[in-house]
Each structure stands twice: as C-alpha cells, then as structure tokens.
Amino acid sequence: MDKVHHLDPVDSNTRGPDFLNSMLRVGVLGAGRLGRATQIVHRMFTDKECYTFLSMSGPMIPGGLRQVVRHLVEKEFIDAIVTSGANIVHDLVEAFGGAHYRVPAGKDDLALREAGMGRIADIFVKEEDFEKFEKGIYDFLDNLSEQQRISLAPSEFLRELGDTVSDSHSIVRQASLHGVPIFSPGLMDSMLGFHLYTYSTTKPLALDFVKDLRILGEIITEQKKTGAIMLGGGLTKHFTMGSTILRGGLDLAVQITLDRPEGGSSGGAPLVEGVSWQKMQIESNFETVIGDATVLFPLMILASL
Fold first, then answer.
1. Domain edges within the chain
2. CA-based angle 269:275:276, to the nearest 5?
3. Is the pLDDT higher at 102 or at 60?
C-alpha cells in the first residue's frame, strides 16, 4: 500500500509547477484529486491522438481566465471549445475595447445600476462597454451576405466573426486563426443571442443549430481518442459528453465543479455516471475536482505545460 506523502513547505518540490506533482504524491482527498486531474490533463496535451475539448460554464472569461484559454488555443493544446454564450460575450467585450472591473467597496446593486454597471459576483462591466459590443456585432452582421445570415451554423458564425476581430488576445480570434471550432449550444441565452434577436427584427437572420451537431458529429466519429476538460457543469458539460456517445464516450476527462451530486444535476454528477450513458468509455481515465475553476484551472495548466 502507498503511504500518504505529506506536503513539506520547505521542500523545493512544493514550489512552482512541481507543487501539483507533490499533491499527486499526497494522493488523497482534494490534493490527490487535483494531482490526478493534472496528470490526466498533461496526458491530453501530450497525446497527439487525443482530440481535446475545453468546456466552460460560469464566468470563466470575466473571472480572469481569458489569457489562459487564449494561450491553450494559440499553442494548439485545445482542439475544440464548448462554452456558454456569456463567455463568448465577455471575450468580445474586451476585444471591442471594453474591460472587466472589480466591484468597488461599498457599492450595492442599486448604486451599480444607477451608475450604468452590471455585476457578476464581484466583477462588473460598464454599460458603455456593452454598447461597444453591440455596435461591433451589428457592424459584423451588416457585412455578412443575406445567404450567410440565414445558413451559418453557430460555430461557423463565430469563426467568421473571429476573422474580423483585431484583438490578438481574443479567444474567438485565436480560435478562428487556428481552426478551433467554438460550439455554443446555449448561445441565444446571452447578450449576443439578444442582439441576434433584435437584429432579426429588421433583417433576415437564422443560425442553424442542427447543422452544428452535424459538424460536431463528423469531428467525433473521425477521432481515435477524445478528452475533455470541463469547467463548471450544466449545458456545456452535457453537450461535450453527449456528443462523444457517437464513439462510446470520452477516453480522458477532468471536471472542476462546485456543484453537488444530490440534486441529480449534470453539473454535480460524478463522471463515472457517464459510463452508463456511454458518455465515458468503460476503461476511461477521469477525475472530478471540487473547487473554484478560476483558481484550480490555471494551477493545473501551469503544471501540465
């Protein structure tokens, strides 16, 4: 039997990226889970046969992960992204010249509203930055042909949009440059979706969500191995795992979540549950880490790279 190896604060192996390897040696509870998850992520990044998804729910981009994700796309560690529409919106808010800010001390929600600010936990975005975003989207839509506006799948729409973005730090931009498709099954549940709706009241516009499933299905069936890093749960996690049913499920998987399993939600469901649904291979390698992805994911990436 392996012994628990306790962390030593003066050991050089507890500093920098080696810190996660030390947690792997601890081997139990949260430290062990984080160490094993990091090891799985490293396997995804180094196995050339593994097609790797990154799925994101919750405020991952406004929460400080924009450059981490951009780097993974730019260096081709990630092959596809599945995300909420909100994370796309917040990437584009910055791409169009806006920013995200820390909520000032003493500011309540009424004061923020009166000042033209929207709050996400302890992050806020200025209304004027959303106006820049709206203008950028409308300008892009005006430059699409009518045929494009009524025939593109959401992933194709986002690829075309990325081609027009000049901010090199943008995830949407880098994904377009490097051929990384972005799938957003809940795209309409976001400010981008709202602007698509308002635009459609004046000009023809209809995205083909079924076409996106055909695109994704063709990708999945061509792969020898699939892996997924899932930040948060819900729709993006379910969509990522569900798409791999076409080949018997994921081979490698890591999820970082704050959700609990008792309610039966997708976000809180243990990954082993996916074996029964053919969303996980019978001999798959997976790990769930309970915690805040904006803290744990960057640590895992530092160690994995």
1. 48-223
2. 90
3. 60
